[in-house]
Amino acid sequence: MIKAGKVTGAALVALMVIGGGAAWARGNDRGPDFSTLDADGDGRVTQAELQAAGQARFAGVDTNGDGVLSLEELQAQGSHRAARRAAHIIERFDADGDGALSLEELPRRGGDRAERMFSRMDSDSDGAISEAEFDAARAEMRAHMKERRGGFGGDRDSN
User: Fold this and answer.
1) pLDDT value of position 106
2) Percent of the chain residues past pLDDT 90, beyond the cut
3) Domain extents for the chain?
4) Who contacts 51 (Cβ-Cβ below 8 Å, separation ≥6)?
5) Is the confidence at residue 10, as pLDDT, over 90?
6) Residue 124: which residues within 8 A CB-CB, separation 6 or more?
7) Three-class HEC string of 43-57
8) 4/90 Cα distance (integer angstroms)
9) Res. 26: pLDDT tops 70
10) Measuring CA to CA, which residue among 36, 21, 43, 65 is closest to residue 11?
11) Bridge partners, 3 (sequence order)
């Protein structure tokens, strides 16, 4: 559990960023905007303003006001955000207005990029990816990620 008095400024900023900050209280999952953080409207955000926003965020999640965040409070906050995001997705992509999304209404992820990736993985060009091709592509991806991370990561599991 996190005690309100022991949360430092850096932790408050992290809590704001991870949880959507002051924007969560406004129903916005994109994170806080500058004008929200600049509480006094002077065109600058001070450490005190960041701390105040973090404390307000903490208080908003601490629904029983006991000064600590329980698993249940954090789960409830996460569920609340997920419900808002789901509603936003339906609002954005529900072309026929029936309040639900069909496969045809969902945006096609990847497009040409997904087709190029499939072609790269299908090294024998037979129109299918074998287990050996899948494993080779996975190993290549892990090596690439490890290289990007300066030699760290990429080998999380052997499955």
Assistant:
1) 85
2) 51
3) 4-93, 112-148
4) 9, 12
5) no
6) 130, 133
7) CCCCHHHHHHHHHHH
8) 36
9) no
10) 21
11) 68
Question: Are 24 and 78 within 8 A, CB to CB?
Answer: no
**The residue type at 2:** I
Q: Is the model more confident about 3 or about 136?
A: 136
Which of these, 66, 74, 46, lies nearest to 3 by C-alpha position?
66
Contact, 106 vs 94, CB < 8 A?
A: no
C-alpha closest to that of 93 among 103, 81, 83: 103
**pLDDT over 60 (residue 1):** no
Torsion angle of C-alpha atoms 91, 96, 98, 100, degrees rounded to 10? -60
The model carries a pTM of: 0.46
What pLDDT shows up at residue 13? Answer: 45
102: left (phi over 0), alpha (psi -120 to 50) or beta: beta
The helix or strand, by DSSP H or E, that contains position 90, with its residue range, turns out to be helix 71-93
Instruction: Answer yes or no: are the C-beta atoms of 54 and 44 closer than 8 Å.
Output: no
pLDDT tens for each residue of 93-117: 999 999 999 988 987 766 677 888 8
Residue the block writes with tokens 């008095």: 5
